Amino acid sequence: MATVPTFAVPPTFLGILRAPDEAAIHIAGIPFDIGTTNRSGARFGPPAIRAASRMLVDGDHPHWWVDPAALPVCDIGDFDIALGDIANSLALIQGQAAAHAHLVALGGDHSISLPLLRARAIGNGAPLALVHFDAHVDTWPDNFGQVYAHGSVFYHAIEEGLIDPKRTVQIGIRSPVQKDVYDWTRGKGVTVITAQDVHETTPHAVAQRVTEVIGNAPAYLSFDIDCLDPAFAPGTGTPEIGGLASWQVQAILRRLEALTFTGMDIVEVAPAYDSAEITALAAATMVWEYLAMVARPRA
Ligand code: MN
Ligand code: MN
To answer: Cα–Cα distances in Å, from 103 out to 19, 99, 118, 151, 220?
Structure first.
């Protein structure tokens, strides 16, 4: 048992106080949300996710049998952003991310994934494979005229050669979308597993498809919390009904152990619209799932 009650551990992710040079994976908050097109508020995501993560400190992960807080992971606090300035914020985020070999980012709106992918793809020297959970394709060329914001992240990531669309899988897709945007995405070679596809098959089959598409390429996990149904994650900017249940995502994630993940972000948690912290807890738990899977000792 932990020595202090869960609610009293330090307000870092999982209460972790380890120094960065003792950790292989660094967690950072990115309090940026001026790339939202509907409800704002994801700037308050990082502290909400950290607070909810304290539910998870009292024992081992019951599938991987490790305590993620005991693994070489640290919380480095929040990145600097340029208040009210998308372009300069993205540049600042990229610069800060470049210093970390394996980063887990707590957003923030989905715009932050573009500079994170820029930093990671440049470090990798080649386009990354991408596992993308979302209700939205996020491949619009612009956002009501704004070129860089949360709906155009993966349009730019594909156009800039940061991700390989043929090794990109989107899971949970179901929002209204212009057919030409959807067709452009599929035409580039992106594999789209809609929310309905997930509901009509098994987590095992979804994970198998993801593993086939990604193969052994270095992969990045971008997790928009709105892939979950609003019943499981109401605290977000652009909720869409018909989404995934938290258990479905857990059951898929736990079967992706063959993949080589090099980084993760969790985005679009907007605590002002949350109820009883369920969205923040879902987000914290997905990060905990990721850490247990990728950072656990392997034979
Ligand atoms: Mn979304
Ligand atoms: Mn998104």
So the answer is: 14, 9, 13, 22, 10
